[in-house]
Design brief:
By secondary structure, the protein is an alpha+beta fold. The chain has a single domain, classed as Aminopeptidase (3-Layer(aba) Sandwich), CATH 3.40.630. The chain contains four helices and six strands. Strands 1-2-3-4-6-5 form a six-stranded mixed sheet, with helices on both faces. The longest helix is centred in the middle third of the chain and has 15 residues. The chain is globular, with a radius of gyration of 15 Å.
């Protein structure tokens, strides 16, 4: 889990894709993973040889019960591993697992409207732009937009 924490920590300290400003502790990261798994949602780790190359998970979109068939995705790729298709493979696997689980919608909340890499990745896997929340974040001394994207997973309608 320390490798996952290290990957995420670089984004927290250097990027606008997460609005966290302090790197979570190892205990916090383990707790977050446990929360995802407790909901029966996927938490995936990509390996290249013996090294963690990235990770992705689906989390609850919102806590209210009516949102139970909608998830929000998160994808993070290790420094030096970008451009190798790892993020795409992780997101594609996440979509597949969530579809198989009978979930209906996946939402991407992309921190920073200038994050073209993430936006293009999501577009390439069927996500559509559904909105922009202007100036909802403030990090590194500047205001930051959030881009909302969404894609259907499956048409199962049940409780």
């Amino acid at each position: 889990m320390e490798a996952v924490r290290s990957i995420y920590g670089r984004y927290v300290l250097n990027a606008l894709c997460t609005f966290e400003e302090e790197v979570p502790t190892a205990t916090q990261m383990l707790s977050r993973r446990a929360d995802v798994l407790r909901l029966g949602l996927p938490y995936l780790v990509a390996m290249v040889g013996s090294h963690v190359a990235g990770y992705a998970y689906a989390g609850a979109y919102r806590p209210r019960p009516a949102y139970r068939r909608t998830v929000e995705n998160s994808v993070y790729v290790a420094e030096g591993m970008k451009g190798r298709g790892i993020g795409r493979a992780l997101l594609a696997a996440l979509i597949e697992r969530c579809s198989q689980a009978g979930l209906s919608q996946m939402v991407a909340v992309v921190g920073d409207s200038g994050n073209t890499g993430s936006i293009r990745l999501h577009e390439s896997l069927g996500f559509e732009h559904v909105g922009v929340l202007r100036d909802v974040g403030f990090k590194f001394g500047r205001r930051v937009d959030t881009v909302l994207m969404q894609r259907p997973l499956c048409d199962v309608v049940s409780s």
